[in-house]
Amino acid sequence: MLDKRTKRKYTEWIVAGADSEFGKMVYSHRMSTVEPVFANIGTNKGLKRFSLRGKAKVQGQWQLFCMIHNIEKLANYGDLTNAKRK
Predict the structure, then answer these.
(1) Rounded distance, CA 57 to CA 76, Å?
(2) Which of 17, 28, 63, 66 shows a CA-CA span of 20 to 30 A to 2?
C-alpha cells in the first residue's frame, strides 16, 4: 500500500511490492502464463503494432498471430506421448 507519510515514489512502491513474499509468488506465476506468449509474438514474430484499423480487423490479425504461435508450438513440441519419449 502507498505509504503517504514517507511520500515514496510510485516506482519505489512497485519495487517494494514486487520484492515482498506475496509479490514474488505472484510475479513468478506470470512467467508460466502469458508473458512468454506476448514476448514471442512481439519480439520473434514482429508484432509491435497492428497494421489494420477497426476492432474486427485487429481481432482477426491478433488471432492469426496467436494461431501462428500455437502451430509453431505444435511443430516443435507436438507429440509428447510416452512412445516418442522412449
Answers:
(1) 29
(2) 28
